[in-house]
Amino acid sequence: MRYLIVGGAGFIGINAAYRYAQRGNAVTILDDFSRAGTAQNADWLLSQFPEIQVVRADIRNDQSALDAAAADSDVLLHLAAQVAVTTSVVNPRTDFEINALGSFNVLEAVRKAPRPPIVLYSSTNKVYGGMEDVAIASDGGRYCYRDLPHGVPETRQLDFHSPYGCSKGAADQYVRDYARIYGLRTLVFRQSCIYGPHQFGIEDQGWVAWFALRSLLDQPVTIYGDGQQARDVLFVDDLLAAFDAALERIEQVSGRVYNIGGGPANILSLLDLVNLLNQWNPAKVRYSFGDWRPGDQRVYISDIRRAERELGWRPATSPQQGVRLMYDWMAANLGSILPVYNLSPAASLAK
Q1: Which of 252, 234, 319, 261 is nearest to 15 (CA)?
Q2: 128 labelled catalytic
Q3: What is the CATH number of the domain that holds 212?
Q4: Catalytic residue among 128, 164, 258, 327, which?
Q5: pTM of whole model > 0.90?
Q6: Least C-beta-crowded within 10 Å: which of 55, 211, 236, 321?
Q7: What is the Cα–Cα distance from 167 to 93, expressed in whole angstroms?
C-alpha cells in the first residue's frame, strides 16, 4: 500500500508514518513544517526509515504538489490543521485558509486523481460546539454528563463554535459530502483528546503532553477553572488501530462519521492527570488556579459505540498505561524536546 500522510510530520502523522513503514508500506509525508517539533519528528522518522519520501508543501497554495502526491497514493490521511481554538480567535483568516481551504484543496487533489485514494480525515469534537443545553454534574471530583452516560453520539446536532470549530466543521462536512457527490471513499473521525509520544503540547493545545513535560522539568502549571474539567483521552496507537479497522471495512463504511476517543472508560480531569503524574515524580506537580477561559467546556466524552459496533474497534490502552508510555518517552528524549520549547539542557529537571 502507498500511504500519503498530509501533516505527516505532526504528532499523529509521525506515529502513523512509523506504523505503516514498519509494516513494509511505501510512505510519503507532506508537511509545511511550520509547527514547532515537526523538523525533529521528521529527522527521527528518516533515521528509522530513510526510504520514506518527504514533500515540503503548504496545502493552502501548493496544489501541484498535492495533486502529484495524491495521484501516487492508495490511502491519504488528512491530518494537517491549525489546531488551537485560541489561535483561531486571534487569526481567523489563517485558521480558515489552513483548515477549510486547505482541506478543500486536498479533496480536489483526490477527486482529480486517476485512481482516487481512500481519505481518512481527522476532525474534532469541537464541531458540536459548547453544548450549553446538556446538563452537567460533578462525580468523584470531575465533571460528567447528567443524562448522557455513554457520551456524545454522532447524531448530536452540529454547532460550530469559534473560528476553529467553523473551519474544522466545514472541512468535516466537505469530506463527508465528497463521498456522496463524487463517490470518493472518505471517512471522518471526530477525535477527542489524543496523546502520546512525539507530541509537543502547549498550554492551549495538547494538555496531557504539556502537563507531563512541566512535571518532568519541575516547572509549575496553571489550571484554568477548578481542575474538574474532564475529557475522554485516547492513546495515539489506539487511534491508529481505529484507522486500520476503518480501512479494512472501507467499502462498507465509506462516507460515515465516527466519534473517536477514549469513551467513558478512559476519562481524565486536569487534577486526575496531576495526581497520575505525581505517582512517578516525587517532586510533585506545582500548580495554581486561574480564571475560566471563554468557551472551555466543563466536560466532553465521546460516545464510541458506533465505532465499536461498525468497526469492531475499542480502546486498548488505559490512561495509566498511555500517559506512562508518553512520560517515559519524554524522559528519554529530553535532549531533542527541549530545543522545541527554546529551553536549554540546564533547565531544572525533576529527580
Answers
A1: 234
A2: no
A3: 3.40.50.720
A4: 164
A5: yes
A6: 321
A7: 10
